[in-house]
Write a structure and sequence with these properties.
alpha+beta; two-stranded antiparallel sheet; 6 strands
Length: 169
């Protein structure tokens, strides 16, 4: 155990090698090589190709991450595309979701998860509520004004929309 911890810290004379090793063993995205081909539905021509997200923009990397996540869930749990009645596990928690990415990328991911009929618990910053709003049935708002106790306010999406309209007028 001591040798592993030393390697995480970076051994004298091997700091660069140890940092590379640490990135590899602590981030599952580095455990496999993968590629994906984005194709046009009309003629099956390749539109975009992704290989380990190298050289792509942030939005393209984000779309690839959602695709890989959805594909791995489908494979792991035997999900069928568009199947609505299933006894398979379909609950996914996504923390810090969509906060840094574009609205288009977030919508892409949400549409993909919807097609797999996944039930999502999405934790996202308030500024992205407009993106997830069409995909959720309920929202919860967490606040911690005194720094000691968190409070949770939950409401249906309909109640949220009504409250939002009331505040706007």
């Amino acid at each position: 155990m001591k040798k592993i911890i030393e390697r995480f810290r970076g051994r004298e004379g091997s700091t660069d090698i140890d940092q590379k090793w640490t990135r590899k063993v602590t981030d599952v995205r580095n455990w496999f090589s993968f590629s994906a081909s984005e194709r046009w539905a009309e003629d099956d021509k390749e539109h975009e190709h992704y290989t380990d997200s190298g050289g792509k923009s942030g939005g393209q990397k984000e779309k690839l991450a959602y695709t890989v996540l959805a594909a791995s869930l489908a494979y792991q749990f035997g999900l069928e595309w568009g199947e609505s009645k299933s006894r398979s596990f379909r609950f996914v928690v996504i923390d810090e979701a969509f906060g840094r990415g574009s609205d288009d990328s977030a919508t892409y991911g949400l549409e993909l998860f919807k097609k797999l009929n996944l039930q999502l618990l999405v934790v996202t910053p308030l500024q992205k509520i407009h993106v997830i709003e069409p995909y959720v049935a309920n929202v919860g708002f967490v606040s911690n004004t005194d720094g000691e106790r968190s409070k949770l306010l939950t409401m249906t999406i309909e109640a949220y929309r009504a409250d939002k309209a009331r505040r706007a007028s």
